[in-house]
Specification:
Strand order of the largest sheet: 1-2-3-4-5-8-9
Number of helices: 6
Mean pLDDT: 96
Order of helices and strands: EEHEEHEEEEHHEEEEHHEEE
Structural class: alpha/beta
Largest sheet: 7 strands, mixed
Oligomer: single chain
Number of strands: 15
Low-confidence stretches: none
Radius of gyration: 18 Å
Helix content: 10-25%
């Protein structure tokens, strides 16, 4: 699935899709409440009120660079709190390579934050050691985000994630720590969007008069646009997360900026009184 923003092309590669089973992330999103939001169906929910979500990676092609945004779960990882996230053996790299993006062709990797489902393919296991999956890429981490998890990874799954998917990048000399409002390329600027994690950032893309926003996990699902107070169970600061959602959605409501979430497809935010709704924008092809 791909979208074009001026001279920037965005291609989505899905690693894992789910329908329903998301109550552990958004417990307030019951089937009854979701069915009340008719605009979610069929793109973001089923007729029964079950949420459609995915774990995916985005590849950006700018005039000068190839950039991977968020790297999903990865293969061979252990110590994850969700059983099916452990010891995966999926042909993810083969899929993106077959689409014209072999790992060695990637110039940069940007992680919106350093949670387990956004950093897994940062590294791959070779001869019993973790090394960069994208050997020629600079890996961009928000400085505040990196320093938080370096100093405060306490739960077993946090420790495992940092050890196998983040620290090996630093040890290999491939990490670049940046500020939350840094300009990455002529087309891409970071936006500070804390709340889900302390140093979470989103990406603002501008090219030839067109705009897109890659929101990461500011919202896990478009239903949170209608219920801004529905913070995820894994948000580090629920109140800040809700405030960030309101600010970001207000900024891009009623514009033609394409918005792509870390776990949902592209669309346009539209103001709906004191809240918002989401209008899907289909991409081209499949990936």
């Amino acid at each position: 699935m791909s979208w074009t923003i001026g001279r920037v092309r965005i291609t989505k590669f899905v690693e894992l899709e789910t329908v329903g089973g998301t109550r552990f992330i958004l417990p307030q999103a019951t089937p009854e409440t979701i069915r009340e939001l008719s605009w979610l169906t069929p793109d973001f929910a089923t007729d029964e009120g079950r949420l459609k979500m995915s774990i995916h990676t985005l590849v950006l092609e700018t005039p000068t660079m190839r950039i991977v945004v968020d790297t999903g779960l990865g293969n061979d990882k252990q110590g994850r709190s969700v059983p099916i996230w452990n010891n995966r053996t999926m042909p993810f790299l083969e899929t993106i390579s077959a689409s014209g993006f072999p790992p060695e062709s990637i110039d940069m990797v940007i992680c919106t934050h350093l949670h387990v489902d956004h950093v897994g393919w940062n590294t791959k296991l070779v001869d019993g050691r973790w090394g960069p999956t994208f050997p020629n890429a600079r890996y961009v981490f928000g400085r505040a985000e990196y320093e938080h998890w370096r100093d405060h990874s306490e739960a077993a799954d946090e420790t495992a994630t940092f050890a196998d998917s983040v620290q090996p990048i630093v040890a290999a000399g491939r990490a670049e720590l940046v500020g939350s409002e840094d300009v990455i390329t002529d087309e891409i600027t970071l936006i500070p969007t804390p709340g889900h994690s302390p140093g979470h950032v989103s990406l603002h893309i501008r090219s030839e008069g067109a705009e897109a926003v890659l929101t990461g996990d500011v919202a896990h699902h478009p239903c949170q646009m209608a219920h801004l107070d529905w913070s995820s169970t894994v948000d580090s600061d629920p109140a800040q997360a809700a405030a960030t959602r309101r600010a970001l959605f207000s900024r891009f409501a009623d514009t033609e900026a394409l918005v792509i979430g870390g776990h949902f497809d592209a669309g346009h935010i539209r103001r709906n009184g004191a809240t918002f709704r989401f209008q899907a924008v289909p991409g081209r092809g499949s990936a």
